[in-house]
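Let's practice the habit of predicting before peeking. Look at the sequence and jot down your guess about where helices and strands might fall. Then scroll down.
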Amino acid sequence: MLDFRYHAISLAAVFLALVIGILAGVGISGRGFVDDAERDSFNRRITELDGRVDASEQRADDLERRQAAAQTFVESAYPVLADQRLEGTSVAVLVVGSVDPTLEWVRRALERSGGVLVRMRAVEVPVVSEELDRSLSSNVALDGYLGEDELDDLGHDLGRELVSGGEAPLWDLLTPELVGQREGDFDTPADALVVIRQAEPQQGDSARFLAGFYAGLAGSGEPVVGVELSRVLQSAIPAFRRSGLSTVDGIDTPLGALALILLLGGAEPGDYGIRDTAEDGILPEIEPLPAVTTGE
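Done guessing? Here is the structure:
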């Protein structure tokens, strides 16, 4: 919620610098270097710049008030809007790196909305392609994934297995090399998936592997949402967006939690949240839940 204020202050600083420059010019003019007409022009420009600063600050105040109003509304309406919205929805979670508090906020959103976390896999990075190849070479049926050039295909199909559930030969074989922490099994297909990136951006083999992984998730046909907390050292949102995932920042706020719930429930894909990474707004459109009918 500080982004609009930050931009307004930056703009005001630019205007202030211009005003200082003009004042310096006026000071010189007072010593006879410029004529009265130029001095009048300087004064008009100062007045104009003052007006722009005031207008910029007013717009920032208006935007802050609107965001605060949205925050207050969602905080009060969140229990009603979220309640049972994901009832019976099976959700899988991919963590890139170690599990951090972001997962707990995802759990809370699922608990509030009736969603079920059926499995979580935390994939350790950077990946070591030599170790993966040693395991893959032990299974003739999977040796087509051998080699650095196949890392994107390997990631892609691991992503598809994570969503589809059932038989998961790649996960069965590579879990010792890839997975740091895990929950749940592959018995149930996932209706939606959440991605958390705790690790730093990757390069080389790991970057290709993750790009393939995200592509496999995005191509599954199910809602896939990359999420992160309100405050992070380095945002993963741009990487998620490039891979075709929907995104939510501020998952630790009612606004972010509700945006996640709506997206997992099939709302219009996009980038939502409270920071400037939220290119599509704070929340997707909120569709009413089907009315519950009872028999006579």
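How did you do? Residues 83-272 form a domain with the Rossmann fold fold (CATH 3.40.50).
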